Amino acid sequence: MLRFDTADEVVVSLDSLMLLVRTNDPSPQLEALISAVETPETAFRSLGQVIAANGFEAPSLVCTWTDSATIYVFLFGSAVVTDTVTGEKISAAGTTTWVERSMPGTAQMRVTWDLPEVTDPAVATAGELLGKPETGAPITSPDADPSQPVDETVEVAADLDVSSTVVLPAAPEAPEAPTMPDPNLIGVTDPVSAVPPPPSPTLDLSPRPTPPNASETLDADEVRQQLQHEPQAEAPPQAPSVAAPSAPGPIVASRICPCGVANPLGANACHICGSSMDREGVTIGQAPRPALGTLKFDDGHEQLLAASIVIGRRPPDDHSAAGQSFEPLQVESPSKHVSKAHLEVRLIDWTVNVVDLDSANGTYVDDGTGRPPKKLRPNVVEQLASGETVLFGDRSFRFEAIAGL
């Protein structure tokens, strides 16, 4: 294990794993976080246990672990990871727990800290720590905006050329994903079909309270039509089916229970049979993902989350982003505060996320603590926690996760 201590961070490198912690306070908590990654295969679960044991009061951190084809990422606190190839951002800022994702093995990752202000912009990059040329060094000019996040770049490459990058060493070839046992043979219900379909909703089409700062701003298409005196025909909403999907979800990195059920990488117990993930026979591999939860709308409609969806008054049928397609979900907005394509509910690995699509009236997340709802930045991925409410225009929904996920 290699460890590097700087004025603001601690970097730990071990085989195919790297841990970056934004602190240099020699506390028992820091040492516990470092000890948690001594075994890469269980590092994410051990980090989660340390964070939870400290009441989720821990320094911000990023941990990456790579096999032959995939980079697994664990974020906590103010950490933000950007894939510079696709432009996708993964942020732990504002979440109450932590974030786990997987990325292609060729991804180039930029790590930043989403801090309210930076008092000392002279922050060392990972390249400085290892004596390598910097890539993506922070702005240090006198005109630099101190309100911008500190830029801490870590590049992850597929080869071992470290002339300008910090490279996570390649691990042994990843084993083939295990064949999923037949549930009929082991007496365990398939995780997707195990989720009971919610009851048929009764639609209440009355207007809902408008989130903070909402206005009657119309989007560009509607303004042009009004100027040309063309009538604006509003298509009637079509309530989507809420039945459980007949086919398994996409293949994602999982901890696979001996009973054949896929679970999140950080799971402590199987969400179907309840057995410990520490027992013999548990493997890490690629497996079909079950539905992750339900969206409960303010009009009584319930939407099972087995795939990513795009929500709006008239969402497109062919919407896509970050390499995945989205199912359209049309909602009614009598005051037209909801844009045609207002927001995404994007499923990434085992997480449920919301993305505002640069809507006219914005998207807000209420965490239920009594604080004012948080307004989302356009086109930035924000992870949802179970029980949080999303407000958009004059509509809203509450996210409830499947037990154990």
What does this structure look like?
With 405 residues, the chain is mainly beta. It folds into two domains: 2-153, no CATH class; 220-244 and 291-401, Tumour Suppressor Smad4. The protein has helices at 28-36, 43-53, 126-129, 183-186, 220-227; strands at residues 2-5, 10-14, 17-21, 61-66, 70-76, 79-83, 89-91, 98-104, 109-113, 150-153, 251-256, 262-263, 283-288, 293-297, 302-304, 309-312, 320-321, 324-325, 327-330, 343-348, 351-356, 363-366, 374-375, 382-383, 389-392, 395-401. The longest helix has 11 residues, at 43-53. The protein starts with a strand and ends with a strand.
Would you identify the regions where 5 or more consecutive residues have pLDDT less than 50? 117-144, 148-207, 214-218, 223-233, 235-247
Describe the main β-sheet briefly.
6 strands, antiparallel
Beginning-to-end CA distance, first to last residue: 32 Å
Residue-averaged pLDDT: 73
* Strand segment tally: 26
Count of helical segments? 5
- Beta content comes to 25-35%
Q: What proportion of the residues is helical, as a percent range?
A: under 10%
Number of domains: 2
Provide the spatial order of strands within the biggest beta sheet: 1-2-3-4-5-8
Structural class: mainly beta
